[in-house]
């Protein structure tokens, strides 16, 4: 009787687990896991056999993975192999984990009477994703930016701080990849004007936003760079516009932000946990 009861519980648990599982996603990962360091190139039939699926399923999954950049065809052969984009999944998890833990104490030093928030953002396509944030205020401005929030790179100081250190072709590609809407009265949307702004940002070492994403909010940002000068992230501080003038905010905030970004760059470089976050579209 006890054995029968235990068996029913296991069946119920398995049924509940299946309801919360996307089986097609699991199959997709089995397809990726079919490739190994010993056998990095496989035919469709070999992938199907290793993943435990039929040839038709393997064909559909492989073509989908090719389309989204995680698998590539090998020349004129019938073989497939993993694309370098697969590395981003692992590298991003490692680097961003270290990025967040290294950034927290640095961000705390930047929040005070003027700066009501300090953040770290990374480039994802044409957006900035906030991966760490220390906030002491800004609620009265209706600002709801938290870890995981997205803002357009073209309108944000963090976006400009990262884009300014990318090659010109990448800058243009990213800026063209999404509609550049007028978010506030001061948002820049013209491509040539934005590219010129990025040149200015790189010359002076930091970006400043005059309420270009959120009305009533000034933001300063500087890049977090790897040893090759490639931007991993942007470090920013924000202050309400009614609390200070743009000139005073820049005069008092630019040097601390640049020093903080440099300190975070050195911390990540010394740990060896850094990678180029940008993936060109």
Q: Give the name of the CATH superfamily of the largest domain.
A: GAF domain
The CATH architecture of the largest domain can be named as 2-Layer Sandwich
The biggest beta sheet is recorded as: 6 strands, antiparallel
The overall number of domains is 2
What is the third-level CATH name, the topology of the largest domain?
Beta-Lactamase
What's the SSE blueprint?
Layout: H1 2-19, H2 23-33, E1 41-43, H3 44-51, H4 55-67, E2 71-73, E3 79-82, H5 85-110, E4 117-124, E5 127-135, E6 150-152, H6 157-163, H7 168-176, H8 191-204, E7 207-210, E8 217-225, E9 231-240, H9 246-271
Antiparallel strand pairs: 1-3, 2-3, 4-5, 4-9, 5-6, 7-8, 8-9
Helix pairs in contact: 2-3, 3-4, 5-9
Q: What's the short story on this structure?
A:
The protein has 281 residues and is of the alpha+beta class.
Write up what this structure looks like.
This protein has 281 residues and is of the alpha+beta class. The protein folds into 2 domains: 2-83, Orthogonal Bundle (Arc Repressor Mutant, subunit A), CATH 1.10.10; 87-271, GAF domain (Beta-Lactamase), CATH 3.30.450. 47% of the residues lie in helices and 19% in strands. The protein contains 9 helices and 9 strands. It has helices spanning 2-19, 23-33, 44-51, 55-67, 85-110, 157-163, 168-176, 191-204, 246-271; strands at 41-43, 71-73, 79-82, 117-124, 127-135, 150-152, 207-210, 217-225, 231-240. The strands form 2 sheets. Strands 6-5-4-9-8-7 form a 6-stranded antiparallel β-sheet, sandwiched between helices. Strands 1-3-2 form a 3-stranded antiparallel β-sheet. The longest helix has 26 residues, at 85-110.
